Amino acid sequence: MPLAPDLSRRAILQGGGALVAGLLVAIELPWAAARADEPEPTGKRFNAFIHVAPDNTVTFTLPAVEMGQGAFTSQTQCLAEELDVALDKVMTVPAPPDQANYGSPALIVQATGGSTTTMAWSGPLRKAGATARAMLVAAAAARWQVDPASLTTENGVITHAPSGRTIAYGAVADAASRLTPPKDVPLKDPAHFRLIGKPVHRIDTPDKVTGKTVYGIDVMLPGMKFATLMASPVLGGKVGSVDQAQAMTVPGVRQVVVLDDLVAVVADNTWAAMQGLNALAIEWAPGSNAGLDQAQLWAGLEKAAQGPGVTAKKEGDAPAKLKDGTLFEQSYELPYLAHAPMEMTNCVVHVHDGGCEVWTGTQVPGFAQAGAAKALGIPPEKVTIHNHMIGGGFGRRLEVDGVVKATRIAAHVDGPLKVIWSREEDIRQQLYRPLYNEHLKARVENGRITALHHRVTGGSVMARWLPVAFTNGVDSDAVEGAVDVPYAIGNRLVEYIRHESAVPVAFWRGVGPNGSIFSVECFIDLIARKTGSDPLDFRRAHLEKNPRALGVLNLVAEKAGWGTPAPPSPHGARRGRGIALMNAFGSFLAAIADVAVNDTGDVRVTRLVIAADVGQVVNPDTLEAQIQGGATFGLSTVLFDKITFAGGKVEQGNFNDYRILRIDEMPVIEAHVVPSKENMGGIGEPGTVVTQPAVANAVYAATGVQLTRMPIDRALIAKGA
Amino acid sequence: MDLKINGADHQVDVPDNMPLLWVVRDVIGLTGTKFGCGIAQCGACTVHLDGVAVRSCQLPVGAVGGRAITTIEGVGATPAGAKIQKAWLDLEVIQCGYCQPGQVMSAAALLAANPQPDDEAIDAAMAGNLCRCGTYVRIREGIKHAARA
Amino acid sequence: MRRILTLIAGAIIVVLGAIFGRMILQPGPYGFAGGNRVDLASYKGASPTGVPAELAAADPRTRGEYVTRMADCEACHTAKGGTPFAGGRPFVLPFGTIYTPNITPDPETGIGKWTDAQFLTAVHKGIAPDGSRLYPAFPYASYTRLTDADVLAIKSYLFSLKPVRQANKPNTFGFPFNQRWLMGIWSAFFNDDKRFQPVQEQSPAWNRGAYLVEAAGHCGECHTPRNLLQALDQRQKFAGGQAEGWNAYNITSDRISGIGAWSNDELAAYLTTGHAKGRGVASGPMHEAVALSISKLTKSDIAAMVTYLRTVPAIRSDRLPQPAGPAPASPKLASIDNPVGKRMFEGNCVACHAWTGAGAIIEEARLTGVRSVNDPTATNVAQMILNGAGRPGTGRPYMPSFADAYSDSEVAAVANYVTARFGAAGSSITAKEVAALRRQN
Ligand code: FES
Ligand code: FES
Fold first, then answer.
1. pLDDT band at C296; cut points 50, 70, 90
2. Ligand 2 in reach of B126 Cβ (< 6 A)
3. Which of A78, A89, B141, C288 is deepest in the core (most CB within 10 A)?
């Protein structure tokens, strides 16, 4: 999901000029030039995204991948809307690695994430569809010797109403593709949309409901072998020695591959490989992180957070205002988190003839290609990536460590090899959401915050993942929620301190705003409570100039019945209602959570109401699903989740100790959408971001205890604690 | 060893303690049944044995005996399975879809045994199926929708 | 007045003396068998000591390893995830934590410099080479029955292992429990320092069983309750004790509270594989005992243990009722008012154990009829939830630990739900008790 709109805006507005131009050129390129490395299919390709076959089959090559967020459908809606074809006549395939054609206008590189698909691609895809349609119409007009303006299109058929003639797209595809693509084709008037803005059925679900969808983990190739692996349990450790004797006696085990940092067992099936791995006697050389533990990681972060940091945003003179008056100060700490998508890391690799083929689901096909190439010491062109549906990304598949490890193993194996990680390996060897320390200090005058100092300390994903976006020592993602607060405050200083530990960090659903917005929203509740104000009124007082933020806040308050107490619940005598507001990814969301807390501190969220203003919507049904899904993700996070280290090893390993919310713990979720003509905003992540502070604030309201280190520590809110 | 899967007979030569999940996926090649945890905590691997939902990741193939195995590829042929699949499409329950074969199998077994499940029955039958995408709200609606169909 | 006081004092002394006397003057571990106990040398019958006949011709290392397995040294002398026999495993006792020592042949941190005589003295008398007294957490009062030859066979096996340099951890006992010399008094009372004496009237199998159970296997250390002086109360022999926070159940031949209703085959299966159909799975310390020791014994030795166990007199424990039978399949059991427990059970447990408790997938997952589920303290159920059993992906039954992600109150709730639904009498274990169990692990 990751990546921040701040970056996306910059990419489009500033550095993005060349990229957009490159994209337009790409759209205008004929198929053969754009994709010279692949055999030309029958039929004609109009641009990098659209291919029309003589039998009228239309194939869309989609730049953003599908991992559950509905991107395939929304992109197809955009293309099909302008091309005037029916959704059920369209085939969709994911794009191969090809930065020139499919590099994201928002993310610079070819990547799907950061809730950017719609904002990045809806424009270019509509333009591609409209251009192809204009060419088809022009070809038909030429054939019939009529004025193109007299032709209409619908469902892949061109009609000349005066003469009653019709012709299918397939019949003129060849002629059309020889025309020079017109420039500046007008886009449809939204009033005439048939697909955009409509809750159309998703195109990927029919196969998913019958088990036909082939995720990366489902790829089957003739002669394929299966492997599973184990990397050093201690971060950064190496393999000392391996005794293979027992493993080789397991029926079906073929080979043990020992690399410097990991061991893999190759077998006739995954089960045999797992048994083989269990039977290995491995001695690890744990290296320098053997003493690493969580207390130390927290302490290191806290020490780094003493500041000063690099300025990310400055308005007025916050430090001067924060010298005296009524001051509030608090730090909030957020844990490492694993993505734990249901489809664990896996990859099929076949190294042969000086090159290699990779079958996997990736959010970054170009990185996957480069990673495999580097692992083998061959040029990227020699690596073919076959991208697949992803069984949940959440940022995990923005990383290609799974591809690289599989390739390194496959290099020692004859024939294609499927490498599947166990769930334990997946949780213990991930890259994690950074540990954050968010320090806030505010001055309050006459019921308003008049100065705010927010210092964000943590590991930087951006610095590693997209160095160009790590400018002047500031991680634009980590500070986004602090920089773009919706509230009018006046004097503000936002600082960033990069503090890396040995733990590798990655984007994670909700990215930076998960930390910065969580802390701002909790801090506001702290001040409201301490100054005897109502948390809703207190927020409203800072929002006169922000109608979209005020709009969602008022809507959520009305729908949830703010001001009335949370209803009684069998789950606990202490009840509370909490509110939170979010402005990130180009969207505005507000949430109200009701919680019940029992005497031993167990928290049950009983109801969640969310109001969203995400600008124009491509698919309202997907929007609702993403709000529900994002919120559920946030619930697991705030209630249960943390990754901790002891002796340099991750302590969690599977769903018994990395807890995911279950259906019987699920509250009612009500999503309300504000109709909006504003620019399209992202929606994959906001639900996750806004839910967490709403729940934390509800727990605060219920117990009178504000928890400042996540997840909720039940011991601290047990009765009488 | 002889297995009856989705009405067809399969002969496999595998050790008795191999979990059915891997027999179905790797040996027979029916990859609709998913691996999610391997420890009976997520439900992604759910199949039916004589109509009862079980976790195939913890089921030694040797314990199957003559019981009929139904996987996601075959559940559409049962009345409850067909209803659930249709409800899932009608309500767009699915997101990434990886957990959904398991969800559909658990829901179909529930519906076959209890044609009008209430919330408590849905919780009891579905709580073992995790969904990281968070489709629970719609799963609940989907089962009720299927029950009405 | 003074006389009365003197009389009272005298009476108290007499009563205390009687109580202490009763604690101290215990019947022998197999005193119940009667008959004539004779020295090994004069016993007529196959030798009950050493390795079984099948292994008589094996090489010395194999024989040494077998005897080491019989005495189950590895379980205690290995830390979680540590190198076998290198020690460091904590035992949380009421007066502090004791760590087992390194018994690999490392000369500095292990027992590499020990002579045969020193080793014998330690194992038989509980006295270390430096003369200091060992705590009876080391079961020398049982091991004292091992023959010299068997003790030295263990030593030579240990000396064949790779030396591991791992310093011993000091225990955390405070005064007066840190006064090791007090153990001298303890041993004077409770360690008779006598080698095994077979009972002439019993069968060779019985005598072999007695040697395995009493001398090597030291079963009573967990299964026999202890008195105030921390000595085994042999009058309550095998009526159930404690082991690292787990209940070690009654293994007398009582049909209701003990194992009297188990068939020989069930007993043998349980001892060999850690599981007998309908009888549950060996978990916690018993799982280790089976995995590291009993399961490695020959069929004839298992049969001998069964023969011996069968003769242990029945003792009824009031706190262990007759296990309940199968439970109804419906999750709707209005009488169990435990929504948290039900929720945990439906999410985390049903997949393997089933709503009927009969086990959804494998027999090992059956809950009904199992002793721990019918134990109204729910101690072992809570321990199972906290600790789990086994490892994933091994092809053996595995249950994950739920300790990290679930709170004490949740663990207590699900334990109480399980006993109420599947047991003879529901439990009411509290979050506090669960917290105490966590500290034991
Ligand atoms: S894979 Fe079987 S329950 Fe998770
Ligand atoms: S739909 Fe993605 S895990 Fe359930």
1. very high
2. no
3. A78
